[in-house]
Each structure stands twice: as C-alpha cells, then as structure tokens.
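Protocol step 4 of 5: obtain the predicted structure for the target chain.
Materials: sequence only (see below). No template structures provided, no constraints applied. The aim of this step is simply to have a reference model before the mutagenesis design in step 5. Sequence pasted as it appears in the construct record:
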Amino acid sequence: MIKTALEKVINEDMAEIWSILSPEEKRLVTDNLQIHHFKKNQLIYAEGDEPEFLWCLFKGKVKKYKEGIGGRVQILRLIRPVQYFGYRAFFAEEPYVSSAAAFEASALGALPLSLVKEMIQNNINLAWFFIRDLSRNLGGSDTRIVNLTQKHIRGRLADALIVLLENYGYEEDGSTLRIYMAREDLANLSNMTTSNAIRTLTTFVNEKILIVDGRRIRIINEPLLRKISKFG
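Step 4 output (structure tokens):
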C-alpha cells in the first residue's frame, strides 16, 4: 500500500524532489514513509506540539491556522496536493506555532524529520529544495499579511476567493470553486467576522460576481473579482 501510494505521487507530482535523491535515499523514503488518512476537520498537529514528521499532502485539502485573542481563528495557509509542510518548526528547533487540520477527507504521507535531516546533511540539492520551498512560503506570507491588514473588507474577501481559486481551481463546469467552505472558514481566511463575510458575500451575489448555493460558490465574473482583490 505504501509503495503503491508513493509511486503514484512520484509519477504525478513528486518528480522534482524524487529526481534529486540517490537510489539509497529513495529506498530510505520508501521504507520509512507512513500513509495517514484524516477525516474532515481532524487535527493533524496542534500548536505547541513538537515537530516529528515532514508531511506531504497526497489527496484532499489541509489548512494551517492559528488561534488568536478570544479564541478567534486565522487561517494562515492552504495546502494542496502535492505540497510539503510541518517542517519549519523542526528546522527552527521550536514547537509548532500554528496548527494543521484536514479541510476534507485527506491522505497524507509522513516522513520522520530526523531522517530528513540526515538526508539533507548528505545531499546539498535536497537542502536547496527546502530552502526554495521555505522562501516561496515566506514570500507568500508577506503578501498575505499586507492584504489582510491594508485591504478593505471587500478586497479581503475577494482576495480569499482568488486564493481558493488559485489553490484548488474550478470544478468541471469551469466556474464552481473546487472547495466547499463554511462561512466561518471563509471569514477566518479573510480576517473578518463571520457576519461581515456573509454580508460581503451577499453583496457580491447582488452585484452578479458570484452565485452561492450552500457551500458551493460559482464565480461568474472573475475579472471583476480580481479587480476588487487587486485594488482592495
């Protein structure tokens, strides 16, 4: 089962990291990789936990989030297949400063970080892979901070919807977002209250930018949504 799942990921999306491993390193990965299945909203790791695994999302959707003042939640990052996460805290030699949970039923691979560290020490190309990954995530986080703190409510919600689109794309109809989010999650991604998210979403519907059916969101005027996102 582990070998089959790993080979599928390698063939589809994992070629970049797989190509820089030696035959011995590939064997170590295959022998030590664990496949985990998480239910919708199930916790993967919690803030304050000690990092043990390099996580790789094979199938499904994952959110990284942090609880703030009064228990208010802020979604920090969305994970899509095939992305790696959960390793920054290990490299920083500190506990996790945020939590991760499955948005929907998901399959993940877990590789012991102690093994990853050994491999990095012997493979400079693998070290550069993680440096690039961390750098891209940092750049994305910097952009998100500006968007969440300087844009108005309309701009923040539009930006959140564009983030969902760019992470998960459309359904086969070419307009429905391939993720079904509760209003609370959408608010947590947009840095606003749930009531404000609902009101702004309704405004977008009235302006014929979106069609909302429960948790399904159809974007019918993507250019205008991107314009609102850009200018805030």
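Step 4 remarks: The beta strands are 34-38, 43-45, 53-59, 62-67, 73-79, 84-85, 99-102, 106-112, 210-213, 216-219. DSSP finds ten helices and ten strands in the chain.
Proceed to step 5.
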